[in-house]
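Figure 3 (text version): structure tokens given as input.
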């Protein structure tokens, strides 16, 4: 029984709360001494060892020239003006700095190994130097090298005015901030604006492409194929194999995987800016056009939204997206003062098998305010209420129609038109 209780205490023991305790726990899990660093050229990509006040770590660098294409995207085409317009229309709430002040970031971690929480062992960064795109990967060859790696990261990150990640708001940045705190180092992310491109990617492409995983959008948007790649779920195991002195060959794939993530992030940023700032093409996916129209309809670019909705409808949309597009288009026409076109769309919506609150409301508004025919408006509302009751529609729609019906009845009486 005593052995069982000892094992149970190991399971329920709270995770170490300081960086030193976590490193000690992780080293025990890896079953290696702190100084048994595997660093032969066969184990790691070509790089250099760097020394900081906190120790040492490993760095791998690469430069992509100004003519480099990542799939179908030339990285150097990223424009500060396009990025500024993109961030304004996406309502990111961030001012776009110059291109050379933008940092792209992606981290690889140990996962939940040992129940101690995640530890970043490889952090990839990318940035522009004129038209060249530079990548730098900071690697901890052992857990004792993490403080040194973090120190070097902090010194580089603080040179930039914007960090761009992919799902970094939920993962990379909070994790790194925690590690800086545990290492008793100042976090470079404290006052650094952060653009998580995943949020924008979902708004732009989820309807048309389904999965918004970076590797999926690489294929569908960038026409970039990684070839043999190490799955993300296997990466922690590859690192622990390296630490335990077994084969480190898989680490080359981990470095390549991380580089692809960083470079694809930059290329996808170019693609996202193009999507928002450029004129749509005739062969664009109607669902992508619909998604962009939804983004633009409540901005200063609402006229573009009208055109995008029209193109999406002409290209063919599935239900219920088609109905939603018509409803949004009717509202845009009415807001712009094009009442006749708004009314035409509303009539189409009313004729649909699926009930459209927007269609009935828009038609009633047209008859009352434009045609000056409250009796016809009342008839539309009555018909809408009848259909709404038959389908058991939302109570809020019923309340709006009933209030409009009562007001129209009073108006009809006032003008001597009866009920």
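Below: residues designed for each position.
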């Amino acid at each position: 029984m005593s052995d069982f209780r000892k094992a149970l205490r190991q399971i329920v023991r709270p995770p170490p709360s300081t960086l030193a305790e976590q490193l000690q726990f992780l080293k025990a899990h890896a079953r290696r001494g702190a100084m048994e660093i595997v660093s032969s050229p066969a184990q790691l990509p070509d790089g250099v060892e760097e020394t900081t006040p906190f120790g040492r770590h490993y760095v791998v660098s690469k430069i992509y020239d100004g003519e480099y294409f990542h799939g179908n995207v030339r990285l150097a085409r990223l424009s500060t003006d396009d990025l500024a317009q993109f961030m304004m229309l996406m309502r990111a709430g961030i001012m776009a700095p110059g291109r050379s002040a933008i940092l792209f970031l992606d981290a690889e971690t140990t996962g939940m190994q040992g129940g101690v929480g995640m530890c970043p062992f490889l952090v990839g960064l990318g940035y522009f130097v004129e038209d060249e795109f530079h990548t730098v990967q900071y690697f901890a060859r052992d857990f004792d090298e993490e403080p040194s790696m973090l120190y070097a990261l902090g010194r580089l990150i603080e040179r930039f005015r914007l960090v761009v990640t992919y799902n970094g708001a939920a993962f990379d940045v909070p994790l790194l901030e925690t590690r800086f705190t545990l290492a008793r180092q100042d976090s470079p992310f404290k006052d650094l604006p952060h653009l998580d491109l995943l949020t924008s990617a979902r708004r732009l492409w989820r309807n048309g492409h389904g999965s918004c995983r970076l590797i999926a959008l690489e294929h569908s948007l960038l026409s970039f194929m990684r070839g043999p790649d190490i799955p993300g779920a296997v990466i922690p195991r590859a690192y622990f194999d390296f630490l335990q002195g077994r084969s480190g060959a898989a680490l080359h794939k981990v470095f390549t995987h991380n580089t692809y993530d960083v470079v694809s992030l930059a290329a996808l940023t170019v693609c996202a800016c193009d999507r928002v700032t450029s004129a749509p093409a005739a062969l664009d996916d109607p669902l992508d056009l619909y998604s962009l129209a939804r983004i633009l309809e409540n901005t200063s670019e609402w006229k573009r939204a009208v055109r995008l909705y029209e193109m999406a409808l002409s290209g063919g949309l599935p239900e219920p997206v088609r109905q939603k597009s018509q409803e949004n288009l009717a509202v845009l026409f009415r807001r712009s003062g094009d009442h006749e076109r708004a009314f035409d769309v509303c009539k189409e919506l009313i004729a649909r098998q699926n009930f459209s609150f927007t269609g009935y409301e828009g038609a009633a508004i047209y008859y009352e305010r434009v045609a000056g025919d409250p009796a016809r408006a009342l008839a539309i509302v009555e018909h809408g209420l009848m259909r709404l009751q038959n389908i058991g529609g939302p109570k809020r729609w019923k309340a709006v129609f009933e209030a409009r019906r009562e007001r129209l009845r009073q108006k009809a009486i006032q003008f001597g038109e009866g009920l």
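Strands lie at 48-52, 55-64, 69-70, 73-74, 102-109, 120-129, 132-139, 162-165, 194-196.
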